[in-house]
Amino acid sequence: MAGGGFVNPAGNKAYPGELTLYVTITCIVAAMGGLIFGYDIGISGGVTSMDSFLKKFFPTVFRKKNDDTSTNQYCKFDSETLTMFTSSLYLAALCSSLVASTVTRVFGRKLSMLFGGLLFLIGALLNGFAQAVWMLIVGRIFLGFGIGFANQSVPLYLSEMAPYKYRGALNIGFQLSITIGILVANVLNYFFAKIHGGWGWRLSLGGAMVPALIIAVGSLLLPETPNSMIERGKQAEAKEKLVQIRGVANVDEEFNDLVAASEASRQVEHPWRNILQRKYRPQLTMAIAIPFFQQFTGINVIMFYAPVLFQTIGFGSDASLMSAVITGVVNVVATVVSIYGVDKWGRRKLFLEGGTQMLLCQVYKCDQNCCYIVTM
């Protein structure tokens, strides 16, 4: 099982079909679902570094940040309410992803993406028009629900729509949208923070409505995947759609494999219990360990709190926001390189290169921190 769908038993079998304009446009629109996650990652850290936002909702943090010279820079943002504002999104995303899996499998990928867009839209409206902290937190919860649905359904949709030769590149389009969302959010924060009157944070938070509308409207226009149609017993429609998206008439081999995979998945009893069997433990371990340790490096924390972190090491308000923009640009460029190389060089080489690069940077950072502590 994969995100509520089924895995093709033939793997990367060379089915006939090319990357048609129809599939390209479809995947680009679907990949826009990554914008909602990326925008939120980039926008929140910038907003929490704006004095006008802190003064209205977190006055204690505002006073410590601007008036208290005795408190360590890192401790000035120590607030349980501020932590609840930032972290409530991720808790909500975790909970909604469990429900999203069932919705995606039973009702299709399109409906799951639609739910993600609409829930994110509600959260953006609540945050943009917030008058009290509770509105911010409730809005963040809705944002989290939206991200849970979108992050669960969009990568699966892209994998099922893409021809096997371009599956890696098109799937990374989701990650590219995330990085673009982060970059756009950082740029907007930089300019909105300069608005006189101290209401620029409303534009930053409310701007999340744009990516929400893109994925919500896009989900209404996108076709359903053949895999999803087969899962729900619409085999004739699924074959017609497969012919359309592959651009060739001879899709019998791929279609038969999809039907066989669907039937095999229905016959599996107790899938969650089966995956814990000894023979599946290596795959299960790696499927959990890779994303866990990728997140454990702290990269999402850096991207999320970039402006705040740059401020705590002495950067000014404008400089911290601009540094976050530069970080976002590097992120986008690296993702573009991955899109170019993933199907050409393979997933394993990119994985090894990325892991080695992160290891060297972590060692260097640790060495610099140790030198700083020794010289204090």
UniProtKB/TrEMBL annotation:
Residue stretches spanning the membrane: 19-39, 89-107, 114-135, 141-158, 170-193, 199-222, 284-308, 320-342
Name of a matching Pfam family: Sugar_tr
Cited CDD domains: MFS_STP
Cytoplasm listed as a keyword: no
Entry's localization field: Membrane
Single GO term (MF): monosaccharide transmembrane transporter activity
Gene3D superfamilies registered for this protein in UniProt: MFS general substrate transporter like domains (1.20.1250.20)
InterPro entries: MFS_dom (IPR020846), MFS_STP/MST-like_plant (IPR044778), MFS_sugar_transport-like (IPR005828), MFS_trans_sf (IPR036259), STP/PLT_plant (IPR045262), Sugar/inositol_transpt (IPR003663), Sugar_transporter_CS (IPR005829)
Membrane topology: Multi-pass membrane protein
One GO term describing the cellular component: membrane
SUPFAM superfamilies associated with the record: MFS general substrate transporter
Keywords noted in UniProt: Membrane, Sugar transport, Symport, Transmembrane, Transmembrane helix, Transport
Domain Major facilitator superfamily (MFS) profile: 26-376
Protein family membership: Belongs to the major facilitator superfamily. Phosphate:H(+) symporter (TC 2.A.1.9) family. Belongs to the major facilitator superfamily. Sugar transporter (TC 2.A.1.1) family.
Protein name: OLC1v1021745C2
